[in-house]
């Protein structure tokens, strides 16, 4: 061995074992529990101490073996499930094989019954052995040493096993049922057999055993009193039990429960006659017993079975029942909810102190040559903490046991069913005692307590090997101090004269003193004489604890010394004033006596922790399963799941992290099913339930995580100043919850499996985010274009929620998910789902049915019945967390969205730009432009038709008729003849063209704004400076832009530093800066969408130029006979203006302002603006009206001149103003000056339409719509 | 024998007990250290598992990203004409 162990272990501790995962789950004790079940101390080394305890040890081992067997019998009985229910019935046509069925049934049942028979036999032999044991060790003329204290305990435990078995037999109704069926089949089957008498006899025996209540105890009673001298030992046992219970120091809860269960039975046995009871009450005052029974009216026996001592006493005892045993039930005492406050304080306090003493210990271990006193203090402190921890754990777990027992004994009477009333009758008993028996508060307290038990348990368990030697050392020191100092003092003073006693004391020294531990102080073993030091010896610590056998012998000797080996000695164990030992010494002996008992628990550290934190019993319900006649209860009735469910539903941030604790209960119960009860089917049932529960748990947890992050994001995205001003603003704030610890759980231990909860959650989150995006798109598709703002808002919330969640959990990036759901992954596709939806929405609904208001720059839905009917899928519904999380937040965001739901304007355009981005936007623009050219093509034949319907010549409107005359003339001239139905068609076409152009205008504004912002952000990095005349100057220092310079110089500095690990990454960084520089510079000058659209329209119009803009034959302006476009539009305009005044659902409400945009743009692009302004009919009417009003006002001084026409005139003026606005805008955005300049030929004749080249290649840069 | 106790050969027992203490010191020393090694292994397993889990998580993310990129490249290489520079 080259490396010393110490060093090797020290080297291991340099490994980083840091773990991300928080301790929010209990520890697994798997193999330790198995070990605890297997290893029963055999005390084989007791004989080495030559205390003549051979007989006692033999008896002790025998009892222990019996206890072990009895426990197995108990688990067989507890897990017994009725077979009769599962037996098949024969159909009518198979009656002939009834006999076969009987035989088969008999064979099946025989197996089960043989187990019961075994139990019957076992209990008989156990009772006999116990009785014999008691008699042997309680004879007054005793010849053998014993019984030792351990022996007493074994007797009590065996008694307890018998009591439990008996109780179980009484409670299980299925056993007699099965048995009677068995008997029936037996009589059927045995007809053919010979010699069935013995079997029949055996059967009758078994029947009596099974059907008699308390058969085992009655049998025990008979066995014991066969020879009439067990009263002494019974009394001793009672005294021992009562004193232990009253002192309650060294008892962990399993032992306490054993004593509580056994005590009534002992009393019943001990008071089987008047004389006996008197003698008992002489030793133990009856009030002490009654007190104990009163304080614990209900004792847990099996997971779902409880014992009531009072009931047992009343049922079994002949003499005790006279006594007043009215049982006061203190509900407060049993309910955890009444203690949880103090438990919480205890837990917090203990956890802190335990950790601090652990830190002290670590500090101590890290110090070289520590001060011995300090060493002792720290280790003593650890010992104290461990003792306290065990006591706390024991108390807490006992509370849970007791509360359970209490709840089982008090089923819920007034169930308030949350569901239907009719189910009231069908509530099973189990639902009454569990499901409806725990209020929300009680569930919370239970979760909390389970959490405390498990966390303290795992805290103690994980420090097991750290504290072990400190504990051993302290115990060693305690024992040595007692044996070497206290006993030495006693021997020297009080016991000097008493030979017997002093011999016992020196025996104690002999068998446990470790003289060599203080060799450095005194070389010789002469200390046996007492030594000279008055202050006692000083020990060098030795980290070795006494063995179980040593403790056993010491306890025996102390007991022996105190009781004097006389069972009949009146009074209690240590409370005896008549003893020969002085009170002071007695006290010391007593303290050490109980300490010794606790040493064993401490030495068995991990088993003790495992036993004390085992909460598996909370799941078992065998008894209720049987009485409810069902195979298994639904998980809603299962206590662990109720707790998990409660934590998830309550949304209580405080207990959220304990949500995994109830799963430890499943772990524990699975462990119990396999190790204690040894039943595979129970484990299978637990496993099935756990699988089911865990699935539900994960889905519920994910749901609440998603809701939480969603509402967090939604509340953060609300306007804070607005919220501040609001009275009920808190409604929109979200209670902080900490999911971080749960999100870090990569190893959830569940029935021996390790589950990566984090990845499960991440998977589900990935899915739920995609679902949500999908839902939002579905929702948008079922609404009109105005919902785009809402969509953006909801997507923003989702994105923010994603951002918040990805701090704690790694999930797919939002843009990837969005692209995926937009079906936009492909590199060659530019039409995302959203873009195509926007386009189809525009084509089918927006362009036909929305009208423009030029003043507000908004499109609104025409109030008239839609011309084009729209069919949309119904709005999909979803849980609130697919919107904004909670209902309140939904309402808040919805009221914001509602502001934008009635129109389409700038905010919508911003949303579109942001949502589509530079990828899909060109596609949409292209689609819209194609739409324009299609519309023009569609309108063209109709225009031709109208041109044909136009009269040959229309002169200028004469002034003499006034407005009335003009209008009459107009009507006569522009009747359109047969083509008049084309009018509204054409107007709609022009309106759609106008809408598209205006829409693109809005888009242009928005894009400009975005681009400007972008420019402002990038300009300083690219080294762009504003020049004197608004030009952009490139800064010329070094020829490179600041961003490149910055990264280059930074890289060179870093790389020149010798400490730099990987220079390549910095070189890459600087290269990337160059790339960014190039990319952003190239993106600098983006064109205008509107100008582009106008150029495109112009190019599209070129085809029809000859038809719509005929070159007059004369070469001069054609006034009367022109059939140019402007002429047609003029006619249409005056018609619809007039219509809009006359007809109530005015045509303006159908067409809106975009008609002007469409018409004027075409006119302008055809170069007919001036013609239009000169010759438009309505303009002429206005001119006439002006002249007329001037003449009339001169005559009558009356402003109201042209009666009946002022409405029309007003509309015309409005139209003129609008047209002027459009023209001026067009002039600004699509100047034709450079083209009009050459519009007059050298000859002087005007050239009406100049064809300027629209470079066709420009349009190919936009992606095709079909792509 | 009225009283119990009375170790028959007290001196021998005392010597044996003393030897027993020493032997057990050795045994418990060894067993404690074995348990510590065992504890270390358990803890090592736990931390390794969580490290592996985080590695797995990263790989998962990368895998999904790679899948996405593959699809994208696939769409691109299926339409080479779109990306070929005009010759």
UniProtKB/TrEMBL annotation, chain A:
GO biological process, one term: regulation of actin filament polymerization
Stored InterPro entries: Cytoplasmic_FMR1-int
Record-level Gene Ontology MF annotations: small GTPase binding
Pfam family, one: FragX_IP
Protein's UniProt name: Protein PIR
The species this protein was found in: Pyrus ussuriensis x Pyrus communis
Lineage, uppermost ranks: Eukaryota, Viridiplantae, Streptophyta, Embryophyta, Tracheophyta
Automatic annotation (TrEMBL), chain B:
Protein's UniProt name: Protein BRICK 1
Coiled-coil annotated spans: 45-79
GO terms assigned for molecular function: identical protein binding; protein-containing complex binding
Predominant location category: cytoplasm
Transmembrane segments: none
One of the record's GO cellular component terms: SCAR complex
GO terms, biological process: actin filament organization; cell motility; regulation of actin polymerization or depolymerization; trichome morphogenesis
Signal peptide: none
Keyword annotations of the record: Coiled coil, Cytoplasm, Cytoskeleton
PANTHER family tied to this protein: PROTEIN BRICK1
InterPro entries from the UniProt entry: BRICK1
Record's subcellular location: Cytoplasm, Cytoskeleton
Keyword Coiled coil applies: yes
Assigned protein family: Belongs to the BRK1 family.
